[in-house]
Amino acid sequence: MKSRTIIFVLLLAVLSLNAAENKLIINADQAKYTISRHIYGHFAEHLGHCIYGGIWVGEDSDIPNINGYRKDIVEALQEIKIPNLRWPGGCFADTYHWQDGLGPKEGRPPILNYHWGNVIEDNSFGTHEFLNLCELLDCEPYLAVNVGTGSPKDLKDWVLYVNGEVGNPMANWRKENGREKPWKVRYWGIGNEVWGCGGSMTPDYYAPIYKHYATFCRTIGGTRPFKVACGPNGDDAIWTETLMRDVGPRQMQGISMHHYTVAHGNWRDKGSATDFEEADWFEQIDQTLHMEKIIQKNLAIMDYYDPEKRVGLIIDEWGNWFNVEPGTERGFLYQQNSLRDAMIAAINFNIFNNNCDRVQMCNIAQTVNVLQAVVLTKDDLMVKTPTWHVFKLFTAHHDAELLPSSVETVDYTFGEESVPAINASASRKEGVIHISLTNSDPNKAQSISCDIRGADVKSVSGEIITADAINAYNDFGKKENVFIKSFSNAKVRDGMVETILPPKSIVMLTLK
Q: What CA–CA distance (Å, rounded) separates 240 from 263?
């Protein structure tokens, strides 16, 4: 009788394990779209110490630099293969006049940055400094145009200045300022958050303004502009529909969308970046998963007006937004970066990848020392944040073909609420398949089997990002707590890839 009881208990355990098993189905023979590397783009605004003291220290600084750019930051951004960089804002863009940042630095007029801390900036970092940085990083520049306090003439002259051949007055001015060859800038954002800090406009008011400005953003010197209209704040369907209806694919190549992950939507008290409990971890995961719903809501409208998918969705501001670190300037938006940020980045990347038929560019906010930054600086020290390591891990998906997939997953439950435990995307490049997986449950490992249909998989290897604590982070002058490690807990059996994802982990599998 006792032996029968033991067998029964074991059988229940096996059945319980099978019921809890997760499954990923990948249709490797149905690839149709490419995951643009531009999904892994960045954003650098004149805000806090993102530019000054972050990217730019000047040629005379004691901090090692390359023509004024911090050498350690340049190398860190090169390592994650940054594909594009958006500048000069953000809200700052709509008070910025590009002509002020030209010529000898001692002659450039200072500017009051009243959006971010009421600091005086000396304009030592301007158009030349930004575009030369993009060349150094081998990335595409993405210029945000001043619609709030600028004019169509300012835009027309800026395009001529950066893209024109010597002979036109603007290009001649560029040559006088030390640059003969044009930069050939393709990406132009016509206004930033014009529904808010960029002008408090309605969509009906902005649509004709966009068309007015866009008319003067023309092909110059053989460089055809990719024009991005200022789109909605999150899931504002009226804004998206107005632009798709009144502007449409003939006059814009992209429509932007901004969405920050803010726990409980509480902008007054957004919580700490590192001092938090599992309830805060769960809430942030839950809020991040809303990105899929927001994208789908916008895509439904875009597909109705543009079934050929000529207009891309450009998510050019996204990421976690917490309270500033204690003792730092409120208007500088400096926050630390933990394993939670890494998880949120990975989940977002999987969502962006799986919607790459329409999502063509995304820009995390921001690159250095601001919000969910990939690197932080303190004097001559630099830290690669957990988010940086996710960008490094996901370079495998750059310009790879998306492999359609679906995941059957158990829930991660906290209290009376639940979210899917596992999130995934898959791609193939040069015959190699990569699967990115997240297990957001901080307490339980998750077993998962991957059914790769239409491909013959012989071997699997992997890498992982995790840590001992959900709020682990990397600090100055200390050993890294969150970084990429080798992952060997995966195998190929009967044509299936099987693995166990540790709690609170991000895993990249490589299949050959």
A: 25
The answer to whether the bond into 182 is cis (omega within 30° of 0) is no
CB 152 within 8 A of CB 191: no
| Alpha carbon of residue 136 to chain centroid | 20
- What is the DSSP secondary structure assignment for residue 48, as one 8-state letter? T
pLDDT at 2: 44
Q: How many CB atoms lie within 10 A of CB 486?
A: 8
Residue type at 191 in one-letter notation:
G
Distance CA 54, CA 380 (A): 10
Read off the pLDDT band of 264 (50, 70, 90): confident
6 has pLDDT over 90: no
Token duo for residue 313: 């969705």
Mean pLDDT, residues 279-287? 97
CB atoms within 10 A of CB 175: 12
One-letter amino acid at 182 equals P
Question: Is the separation of the CB atoms in 318 and 365 below 8 Å?
Answer: yes
Residues contacting 433, CB < 8 A, separation 6+: 26, 28, 403, 426, 427, 452, 455, 457, 510, 511, 512
Place of tokens 């195998």: 491
pLDDT in tens, 16-25: 444 338 999 9
45, 140, 193, 241: the active-site residue: 193
* Annotated catalytic residue 408: no
d(CA 497, CA 509): 10
Residue 292 annotated to the active site: no
Q: Radius of gyration over alpha carbons of the chain, in Å?
A: 24
